[in-house]
Amino acid sequence: MIFFSRLTHPARIESAELATPDQIDAFIDSRALAYPTQIEDDFVQRALGLGVGTGMILDVGTRVGLILLKMLWQNENFYAIGMDTSSSLIERARETAQAWGLGERAFFQVGDARKMRLKTAYFDLVISDSSLHVFDDPLSVLREINRVLKPTGALLIRELQRPTRFQMQRKIDECSELYGARMRSHMETALRAAFTRPELDALVRASGLERVRISEQDEHHFYIERPGDSDPNSWIKVREQYM
Fold this sequence. Notes:
The protein has 243 residues and is an alpha/beta fold. It has one domain: Vaccinia Virus protein VP39 (Rossmann fold, 3-Layer(aba) Sandwich). Helices cover 43% and strands 19% of the residues. The protein has 10 helices and 7 strands. The protein has helices spanning 2-8, 21-30, 34-48, 66-74, 87-99, 138-148, 168-179, 184-193, 197-207, 235-240, and strands spanning 55-60, 78-84, 106-110, 123-129, 149-160, 213-215, 221-226. A 7-stranded mixed β-sheet has the order 3-2-1-4-5-7-6, sandwiched between helices.
């Protein structure tokens, strides 16, 4: 399958996350458009429906933190850490958390998801939206997610599909319309850095993640997910006993 995929799809290129102020502003502006807002809200509802109703969330590649903050807004039993490599994005996320009154439950930090300085088996839910392709070693990211996620924890990762050679230009044009003209260059790079299904299957197998399901829910994205259970021994639950 991987060999056939290499024949039909262009080779992956290296990607880069949002870096310049103009790119960041373009990303934030795109959140006001119908499609980005809808798929963001769909992701939030999907994550909240995985069976975990309390505890700690980790958002890998949080960017400006909107998905994480929407989850905390809808469920007051969660606390969360959002991680990104960009200090500019993290600063925007912190500002938004304060503006939404969630600064005491949402903590944003600059960090490398390939080598997280976080406790093993600590998080009840790990999420990541279209960030895996940004890393030059995505397998290390998945292995780290597996390490910090509780055995009973839930997982939701959404990733872009890399189009075939014949679909690429059409997909770039479609995404430019959906995300706005200012996002065209970023979306083209992201699509060329994205994964095919066989590549994603191989990464998940090598990562050690268990009980996960990979699905194609729409023509642009893959989902890696597994349901979980709320941990009765979560530090948040223990904390509530003394408050």
